[in-house]
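The passage that follows is intended for readers who have already worked through the single-chain material. We present the inputs for a multi-component assembly, then the predicted structure in tokenized form, and finally a short commentary. You are encouraged to pause after the input and sketch how you expect the pieces to fit together before reading on.
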Amino acid sequence: MVNKIEKVALFGGTHGNEMTGIYLIKKFLKHPHLLERSTLQVFPFLSNPKAIQSRVRYTEIDLNRCFAPEDLGDLDQVLYEQLLAKTIHQKLLNNQINFVVDLHSTTANMGLTLILSDTNDFHLQLCTYLSLIYPELKILYYASTEKNKLLRSNTDLGLSLEIGAIPQGILDANLFIKTEKLIYSLLDYLEEYNQNKIDQKSHNLVFYEVFERIDYPREEEEITAMIHPNLQFKDYQPLNFGDPLFLTFEGENIIYDGSSEVYPVFINEAAYYEKGIAMCLTKKREINVTFH
Amino acid sequence: MVNKIEKVALFGGTHGNEMTGIYLIKKFLKHPHLLERSTLQVFPFLSNPKAIQSRVRYTEIDLNRCFAPEDLGDLDQVLYEQLLAKTIHQKLLNNQINFVVDLHSTTANMGLTLILSDTNDFHLQLCTYLSLIYPELKILYYASTEKNKLLRSNTDLGLSLEIGAIPQGILDANLFIKTEKLIYSLLDYLEEYNQNKIDQKSHNLVFYEVFERIDYPREEEEITAMIHPNLQFKDYQPLNFGDPLFLTFEGENIIYDGSSEVYPVFINEAAYYEKGIAMCLTKKREINVTFH
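Having made your guess, compare it with the prediction:
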């Protein structure tokens, strides 16, 4: 069991065109008292200043895929984001950070989503606490592969926060406010946890577990179809055999031919076209979470 | 009065991250019969291949601001898009193009909008014809400044088509289909016009005329506020004295202090943050259009 969370790092701008996190961090840097809690120190960071300056996701390589231990240890990997990842990792070590929150946004209609790489008790309790305050909050369990370690993988404890749907490069005031409130509640939880004040009964927690990623239909790299209109904006809604997945440019439907009910997320995320991901498929899970 | 429209150029990808136009042009290049009409030739073009490849608006400078005659004639302007503009201009001359359609998309909620640089009879008749088929269609009169000539400014006749709200970098099947249909109706009109088959009575046409552009509140370049939640997605809706325009990051409202009713458009367009435009203000006009 985790003892205390004393040092928290809050990142925005890990992707330089995801403005919600960037402007929240700028706000916190300007008004540090907003993050003050008696039992923990919170450090706000802008992850990728060069990408933020250029209003792009990254300048040379996706920073949020550069944190595998062998990559961090490879001193011959010297693209801008590969260098930056080593520095961020060192910064987390030097500051003895034990909890990381990484703020993201998505063009997919995922509302307010917490993404976990690990379903340990601490994470599940935190998510349960926040779900009770924010019933619309979604919990996504998305284990990162060994090769593509994320910023949140730098510490044992940590998560990403996604908000959407929002285009890259803009702010949406409603989503900004929602994200800000959730951050304060998350810090409140850590504070209460440190003070042994968490006094919850057991609760059921629904979460979604990513098990597969689906690419767009392609011919020689080039996509040949779009997300089907019936599926657009339908993140976290059930998809069954025979439901339309894609619509070709010539107007033909391509259906889902899996046998079991799944729940797609990251549907039509702009940054995932180049990664070969049209959506991620999840299974819906429900577990009982107890507080010790 | 215009005699006949015999050569039409259809552009997509003038901005390389506006996917609707890009994939429509790719479709037309693959299926050229879709653009065939008996009295006119239609040439589909991808404007900025390098920006399209990189999925960015432009590589060095906004192509759609490079078409002023003095820029086209200045052989010392050799940024990629400045060179490209000269080539596109020459291509239009060589092909004796007399009508240009330039396909764009926007993160603002502007629906299906035709943008005119010039309210000549030909343009107004075309817009009236299309408005009768598509009642949701909006007509925007946005005169370009002498210094910032657009692709559509290369010919006396021509217009831009905007579709939104859609994030940069993604396709939305519904908006793709709407744009495609409108293009076919536009070509049908040109065909009927060439055949002297336009047989309309006079009709009233509503259009919106841009008269001012408003920037975000800023401190030393940096924005200090967001589009107000009440205004987000409210393109083409009336705005009056006292209505909220912006919400500062600290939560304060900034109101519209103009005295007359206006209709904002391009509200929260991602590409306009760097241009210093939070929205464009328009006046609503209504005129009677007769067909000769």
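Commentary: The helical segments of chain B are 19-30, 49-54, 69-72, 80-94, 121-133, 173-194. Chain B touches chain A at residues 23, 26-27, 31, 55-56, 107, 165-174, 176-177, 222, 226-229, 232, 247, 249-250, 268-271, 273-274 (CB under 8 Å). How closely did your sketch match?
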